[in-house]
Design brief:
- With about 180 residues, the chain is α+β, with helices and mostly antiparallel strands.
- About 20% of the residues lie in helices and about 45% in strands.
- It has helices spanning about 90-105, 155-165, 170-180, and strands spanning about 1-10, 15-25, 30-35, 50-60, 60-70, 75-80, 80-85, 105-115, 115-120, 125-135, 150-155.
- Helix 2 (about 155-165) packs across helix 3.
- The two termini are about 35 Å apart.
């Protein structure tokens, strides 16, 4: 596969749409659409920038999950606390801010942060990092009027039940599956 041409086709407030023209393995042109959270100045910059974080948090042996309304799917789903990096903000500052904004909780300890990974490789170059943190404090709603989030800590047993009955984002589903102690490979 060889990228022949890249063109921005829409410049939205939060997403930029690009059309990529590839030469496929049969030598024919293939048009492919992607979205990005940031301006992509050229083909070499695709997928280079980290734009946010997802937070796997726990307290007293329980996992933090958010039940939030997601406009993109027009329903409530279980998700991890997550958000975008602000200009000039460190990843650690972003973790603390997002956890507080979405739950009212604070970071007791950041245990680890994974290297950047792609959030949705089928249609976006968005890269995020996953942080594992111990949280503390009390739940408070600091969300905007455009967010509807209920945060809570769940036991392993409760998470197992949610996995069988509720809809999740894929990243939250994977984290919840392993938190709940499901059989490993």
């Amino acid at each position: 596969m060889k990228l022949l041409h890249m063109e921005k086709v829409k410049d939205g407030k939060y997403l930029k749409n690009y059309e990529l023209t590839y030469q496929n393995k049969a030598g024919r042109e293939k048009k492919y659409e992607i979205v990005s959270r940031s301006e992509i100045p050229g083909p070499d910059a695709i997928g280079k920038r980290v734009s946010g974080v997802s937070i796997v948090a726990w307290h007293d042996g329980k996992m933090l999950l958010l039940r939030e309304f997601r406009m993109g799917v027009n329903r409530f789903v279980y998700n991890l606390c997550a958000g975008m990096l602000n200009e000039g903000e460190s990843l650690e500052e972003c973790i603390q801010r997002e956890l507080y904004e979405e739950t009212g909780l604070s970071v007791k300890k950041i245990h680890s942060i994974l290297p950047p990974s792609f959030a949705a490789v089928a249609f976006s170059d968005v890269k995020t990092q996953i942080a594992f943190v111990e949280a503390e404090g009390n739940f408070e709603d600091h969300t905007s009027e455009n967010e509807q989030i209920t945060a809570d800590f769940y036991t392993k047993e409760a998470v197992r039940e949610l996995l069988e009955t509720e809809e999740f984002s894929s990243r939250a589903q994977l984290a919840a599956y392993f938190f709940a102690g499901n059989p490993s490979f």
